Amino acid sequence: MLGNLPFGTTCAGVRGYVDANNNEYALIGAGNGISIADVTDPTNPTLLFTVPANNSLWREIAIYDHYAYACTEGGGGITIIDLDSLPNSYTATIYDGDGAIAGQIGSAHTIQVFDEYLYIFGSNIGSGGALICSLSNPLNPTFIGSYNLEYIHDGYVRDDTLYAGEIYAGQFTVIDVTDKANPNLLATQSTPGNFTHNTWLSDDGQFLYSTDEVANAPLASYDITDLQNIQQVDAYKTNLMPAEEVHNVRVLNDFLINPSYGSQITIVDGARPSNLIEIASYPTGGYLCWDADPFLPSGNIIATDVGGGLYVFAPYYVRACYLEGNVTDDVTGLPINTVSVDIVASSTSTSSNTSGDYKTGLPTPGTYDVTFSKPGYISQTITGVVLQTGIVNILDVQLVPFVVNGQVVDAQTNLPVPFANVKIADTTLSSFTVADANGNFTFNSLSSGMYEITAAIWGYQSGCINANLGSGNPIVIAIEPGLYDDFTFDYSWTVTGNATSGVWERGEPVGTTFSTSQSNPDEDSNNDCSDFAFVTGNGGGTANDDDVDNGETVLTSPVFDLSSYNDPYLNYERWFFEQFSTNPNANDTLFISMNNGIVTEVFEIVTGPDSTNSSWVPRSYRISDFITPTSVMTVIVSISDKIGSGNPLEGGFDRFEITDVPLSVNEISGNQFISVFPNPANNELNISDRALNATLIEIIDLRGRVVLETGNDSQVITISGLEAGSYFIRFTNESGIVGYSKFVKK
């Protein structure tokens, strides 16, 4: 930046003017009129005059000889300013039409002059297309003809061709204006953002550049040598703020000058329109660098920012360093598309097209490493690539297909495990497959690198290894026989119940919190191969968004056989969270049970102010202490919300395993003060809680439902109305829940 002239109003379009004494001026479309600034000394731009006009954010200017023409959507016609007396004075008149449109021109969006013709775009006449006026009398233009098939937001004219940015149609249009009274449509082309703002032609006239006034839309370049087959050849986004679109593009000596949103102006080397490379940028001070004019004899660029005023810049015009080439398959010789091409020591990245061609480059010469990568191929880094200013370095590469082969075997017999599930994952992707009848598996859509590979099938423990893949050596994963599930794979656990929300689901936990407590877990158990678990609802948000509500949700395992185990143990990790109620009767409950095809027995109950609330808790239980092992066992995990309790309730279940030894030490607690008899019972149950002083006794079935409750005024409870099965008894006094017992109803 050489100089800056702040304004107390907005600034839009800008055009440069040179008088007979070679003084340079900037004419600025300010919010309150057309401002004229002397920029002969670029370090000290000076405001000379402001020509009054209707207030407007949008004001554009064109220059013909010593006349300036300004339009605005604020109305008031076309302001014509005679600049011949600068820097001392000016004169101004208003033009609102002539001939067939006398007195009709009120507003317009953009204006341009080429040869002796004035083109007015986006006016209030017709569809807002192009009005064409002769400047044989510069102070009194003569209307000749118009083009009105579409609204034109901005236009660029060279020779007898108009390139129109038809913003609402999302296209640019090429129009023959040889016969100014009868313009003729030649071609149309949609643009990437479908909101075409402006266009500009390359110096040789063979390429056209377009901008779209919508976020994330690129500046695009097109080969227009065949108007019946216009081809987009590249797309450019600013390096520092790629989401902020270029507002206007101007071209000088095959450099693209780009005032842009985000308050920035950039220069792009356009010598190779199919390989546009940014070589310079500067941040301006508002929110939108609206316009720029690089055509002053001094070579200085004048630019306007809506909030930052007028800027004068010394341009940096240096050709880029180009890197181009073709990528093919080393085996077939066919081109490979979507190969990522990364110049390692920079943030520059591109990809190959359907022909395998790529084009990229840098503004700074030097020696670089370049990496080529695509899933399904071994990544390749070419070192010592020399990039020079203005030189095209051609670098063709052949990539070797990358295939991961492996086998899943039994860790004890070393025999193949047929049809095992296999997962391969890194930080960015996760892919699944199923081994064949010989335990063999293949992945062919990966890049070389470090991966975690997990293999499992029901009846085996999950096995997981970390491997740096790229050598081509087969992967062997040995897995141990055993009943196990860390939920890496879906073994068809079933979900039933009547809860209206928060039902069990398998996935990577999405954590939620309540006050300062973790309600839903934000990760699974740390002791397994996967990030998956079963959790009650996994929608995230707050604790009440997807918790268990108005009933129970029941998770049931596949059937498994324990008849071959000597002394099996049930092992798992569970999660429980409840917002504890001041009323113990409202507390919700988690049950872990097993069924052997005949009866269901509860192994663990978690409720109320459990000390392990909001954590993964490992548990191991000797199965025969609770139920007779058979060949048709299932595990049942039920969590129930008392209807109307309003308590946030969450549960989790992970790392299920059956072993012949316990895997964790449980905190076993009993209560010596509770006596229940007879057990099993038929019609009556005698209860003695002696020192507990319970005020409420509840009988709960295996689904967590309270089926009978009473006070402690009677030591005999009639249970004849209960169905046969196992039940729990919960004892509560003023301090809360003080104990449990268990009985069987005949």
Structure overview:
- This protein is mainly beta and 746 residues long.
- The protein has 5 domains: 3-313, 7 Propeller (Methylamine Dehydrogenase, Chain H); 321-399, Carboxypeptidase-like, regulatory domain (Immunoglobulin-like), CATH 2.60.40; 404-482, Carboxypeptidase-like, regulatory domain (Immunoglobulin-like), CATH 2.60.40; 494-659, Jelly Rolls (Sandwich), CATH 2.60.120; 675-745, Immunoglobulins (Immunoglobulin-like, Sandwich).
- It is 0% helix and 48% strand.
- The chain is built from no helices and 63 strands.
- Strands 44, 46, 49, 51, 54 and 56 form a 6-stranded antiparallel β-sheet that branches. Strands 45-50-55-52-53 form a 5-stranded antiparallel β-sheet, with no helix packed on it.
- β7 and β8 (78-82) form a beta hairpin.
- It is elongated and about 115 Å long.
- The N and C termini lie far apart (93 Å).
- The model is unreliable at 667-673 (pLDDT under 50).
Summed up:
Helices cover 0% and strands 48% of the residues.
Helix content: under 10%
Instruction: Enumerate the spans where pLDDT stays under 50 for 5 or more consecutive residues.
Output: 667-673
CATH topology of the largest domain: Methylamine Dehydrogenase, Chain H
The radius of gyration over CA amounts to 39 Å
